[in-house]
Write a structure and sequence with these properties.
- This protein has helices spanning about 35-45, 60-70, 135-150, 170-180, 190-195, 200-205, 245-260, 265-270, 275-290; strands at about 1-5, 10-15, 25-30, 50-55, 75-80, 85-90, 95-100, 125, 155, 185-190, 210-215, 220-225, 230.
- With about 325 residues, the chain is of the alpha/beta class.
- The strands form 2 sheets. A 9-stranded mixed beta sheet has the order 5-4-1-8-9-10-11-12-13, with helices on both faces.
- A hairpin with a 4-residue loop joins strand 12 (about 220-225) and strand 13.
- The protein starts with a strand and ends in a 23-residue tail after the last helix.
- It binds beta-D-fructofuranose.
- Beta-D-fructofuranose (FRU) binds next to strand 2, helix 1 and helix 7.
- This is Fructokinase.
- InterPro entries: Carboh/pur_kinase_PfkB_CS, PfkB_Carbo_kinase, PfkB_dom, Ribokinase-like.
Length: about 325
């Protein structure tokens, strides 16, 4: 079972008619990096549990319904009366999204270190706002350290949202302090630039591999032994609507496909061949392309990805 820990929130995505004068109409969509990753894993058919603190308000109920509908186990979700975090998304002409968060005093920020993870948990995925917003961030960090210490495979996606980070240098130092506990680091090239440093440097600090996403330019992985493998982005049927949740889908697809290769351990990741990596990356690219073809974070179901072929690309 894969455990995804972190925020579930509501994205307010531009769309439809009905705004007041020059104000755009905003449609509520379930979101939050970890929420999106958990739903994507569930839709792919991977046994998944979500670990978080979710509001008892109507949005919180809808978020839990979304998880359950994807087959995600929500027994580790704690509830609180504080409101759900809101993220107002601005979508550019190319579909890229920027976010403005309303996260003061919200339920997910008050996450506390939970008891043991569900029986059979083999991997933990976390990142994004939940590792920034205190006091919950310290509890998520403690969860990462505790589970990595127990030998659980960890995937970290910093999913940097600069508007939420008060002290950029302190966050960058904190990010580096997590790396010894990280089995697989996945991040966008924009996040890599913002964080400073390089994949090669981060690899020496702990992760078995670093996956970099570069939007329309595709995905690549850099492994400990210095190999680099890349695939192009997959075609987005009907064109990009928005990129919301694409990176979160990549996290899920990586974990799902690595599990299929029996590679949810740093030692097994080190054994993956070039063909294995190309298969994993191509699958993630196809999954992300489907998410980009629809409004908001709406990851694909397994049936939409049937027969994902391995592709041979130059690294
Ligand atoms: O969690 C932070 C934000 O990032 C996203 O997950 C997209 O990657 C949005 O759904 C959310 O508002």
């Amino acid at each position: 079972m894969i455990v995804v820990a972190g925020e579930a929130l509501i994205d307010l995505v531009p769309g439809g008619a009905g705004g007041d004068g020059d104000l755009p109409a905003l449609l509520p969509r379930r979101g939050g990096g970890p929420y999106n990753t958990a739903v994507a894993l569930g839709r792919l058919g991977t046994p998944t549990a979500f670990c978080s603190r979710v509001s008892t308000d109507g949005f919180g109920e809808a978020l839990l319904d979304g998880l359950r509908a994807a087959g995600v186990d929500v027994a580790s979700v704690r509830r609180g009366p504080e409101p759900t975090t809101l993220a107002v998304a601005a979508v550019g002409a190319d579909g890229s999204a920027g976010y403005h968060f309303y996260a003061e005093g919200t339920a997910d920020r008050l996450f506390e270190l939970p008891g043991p993870l569900p029986e059979g948990a083999t991997a933990l995925c976390l990142g994004t706002c939940s590792l920034v917003l205190e006091p919950g961030a310290s509890a998520y960090e403690a969860l990462l350290r505790r589970e990595a210490g127990r030998g659980v495979f960890t995937l970290l996606d910093p999913n940097v949202r600069p508007g939420l980070i008060v002290d950029a240098d302190a966050y960058r130092a904190r990010f580096r302090s997590w790396l010894p506990q990280v089995s697989l680091l996945k991040l966008s090239v924009e996040d890599a630039r913002w964080l400073g440093g390089s994949a090669r440097e981060w690899l020496t600090a702990g992760p078995a591999a670093v996956v970099l996403t570069d939007g329309a330019a595709g995905l690549s992985v850099l492994t400990r032994d210095g190999e680099r493998h890349s695939v192009p982005a997959a075609a987005v049927g009907g064109g990009v609507v928005d990129t919301i949740g694409a990176g979160d889908t990549v996290n899920a697809a990586l974990l799902h496909r690595l599990a299929g290769h029996g590679a949810l351990s740093p030692a097994a990741v080190a054994e993956l061949t070039r063909a294995d990596w190309l298969d994993v990356l191509a699958f993630a690219a196809r999954a992300a392309a489907i998410t980009c073809s629809r409004a908001g974070a709406e990851p694909p179901y397994a049936a939409e990805l049937c027969g994902s072929p391995a592709v041979e690309q130059d690294g």
